[in-house]
Amino acid sequence: MNNLIIYLLSSTCCLIVFYLFYRWVLQSVGLYQWNRIFLLLALGLSFFIPLLQIDPNIFNDLLPNGMTDSRKVVEHVESQLVLLVIEEGMPMEEFGNVENSESGVYYWLGLLIYITGFSIAFFQLKRNILSIIRMALNGKVTKYGSFSLVEIHHKPFAFSFFRLIFLNPEGLTESEKAQVIAHEEVHAREWHSLDILLVEVLKVIFWFNPLLGLYKKAIEQNHEFIADGQTAGKFGISNYFQLVLKMAIRQQKSTVANHFANIPIKRRIQKINQNQIQTMQKLKYLIVMPLIGGLMFCFSCKQENENVNQNELVKQPAPEMLSVAHQPQQDKGIPDMLPLKREEMHKMTSGFGMRTHPIHKKRQMHRGVDFSAPTGTGVYATADGEVKGAEIKNGGYGKLITLAHDENYFTRYAQLDEILVEEGQEVKRGDLIGRVGSSGMSTAPHLHYEILKGDQPVDPADYFGEGVKFE
Are 161 and 146 in contact (CB under 8 A)? Predict the structure, then answer.
């Protein structure tokens, strides 16, 4: 549910940014075909960009260091906020397995509301399409080139739907009928109905988003400007103006068809008389590319600590014994090595911090790091200490070993296949204590490793990173 809310908010932000860019920058340019393409592209990208997962490291060479570092600051603050919640009143053992008893009620209530709104919007769209089909079946149909002209005798007086052109000829001269048909031919020839139907389908799926109504209105206006320009050029602006005024008084529109008069007359006349577009104005469309890039950077970049690739892991120190030369400089009671041997480890699959739970699909705090390795791979104590726990947890940990070390440090080794130590046993740094498995809430064999200082989780990467030398 949390992921769905984040997606909807992200897509809404994209819709707002694209629409404001259109209104403030592109609407006045007068390239109606280009504007039509932009609006359709904006709709698609707004719902697609939040679904993308992009490694933010690709931006490192493109952005100043300050900008990439600021993202790390945001992630750090997010993690610290979660830690503050833990500190203020949530038991450490229960965090991550907590299920809000009310969440199920909210989920089903939200689902019921969505289905109700979806059903209403769907049946409205169905009713409008069926009404057009009934008009086509009941009207007088005449083949008109590659289109079909349907003569009707009620409102609306003129509109098109795909290859069908509907016209009420009452009160129109032959010349005016030819102009109306030519206007609607443009809509039919350029498949404008497909654009409208696309927006209507999105309005059914995202019925709660009022921005889609603004996009539909903008797309319809560009359709009319395109048809006006081509028709006026064929029959003359003066004659066409008179027809536009006459049809505007008569027209009443449906929601899924292209109508002859569905935008203010004054604006249509202004657009027909618009001066020739300057080349410099066309350059405004080049701003679209950095705009798309910026939205992808904001809404598609996944957290850096969620998937650490194998090359990055190779750069980390190998999880083997310290050389004798370096041992005097180490405090053996503080965790300072990796819990798996380098040659037996595949990669780090999840880092410390906020992430989307692989099973629950909810955004929550990950208090340790996960190492992918085959079942049975040896797990080693990362510092001298005492076994405080060697147990099987019913929650996400599975088979779990907890070690107590100097300076109030604790380490946890979870998801084990086998526990090789007993509670109360003294262990030395580098001792084999267990074997990798998939005994808890897991999708594949791996080791979940945590470091706690007091009762607060800390990032294990800070303890097996720089400054530690291995043989």
Answer: no
Contact between 204 and 122 under an 8 Å Cβ cutoff? The reply is yes
Residues 169, 183: contact at Cβ < 8 Å?
no
pLDDT of residue 130: 94
Q: What is the pLDDT of residue 30?
A: 78
> Minimal CA–CA distance to 57: which of 302, 353, 317?
302
Torsion angles phi and psi, residue 419, rounded to 5: -105, 125
Query: Low-confidence residues of the chain, pLDDT below 50?
Result: 61-63, 65-101, 303-329, 466-471
Q: Please give the C-alpha separations between residue 41 and each of 229, 289, 438, in angstroms, as whole numbers.
A: 23, 12, 44
- Contact call for residues 335 and 319 (beta carbons, < 8 A): no
Q: What confidence tens digit (pLDDT) does each residue in 380-421 have?
A: 999 999 999 999 887 678 899 999 998 889 999 999 999 999
Burial class (CB in 10 A: 0-12, 13-18, 19+), 311: exposed
CA distances from 144 to 139, 141, 228, 247, 279 (A): 15, 9, 20, 21, 38
Tokens linked to 106: 């909210």
Output phi, psi for 318, to 5 deg. -70, 145
All structural domains of the chain, each given as residue ranges with its CATH number in brackets, are: 99-273 (no CATH), 310-462 (2.70.70.10)
Between the alpha carbon of residue 21 and those of residues 15, 24, 176, 217, 467, the distances in Å are 10, 5, 38, 16, 49
What is the residue whose two structure tokens read 């004054």? 266
Q: Is 159 helix (H, G, I), strand (E, B) or coil?
A: strand
Q: Beta partners for 371? A: 348, 447
Spell 75-101 as b/e; 16+ CB within 10 A means b: beeebeebbeebeeeeeeeebbeeeee
- pLDDT tens digits for 126-183? 999 999 999 999 989 998 888 999 998 876 678 899 999 998 888 888 888 999 899 9
* Residue position matching structure tokens 């609607």: 184
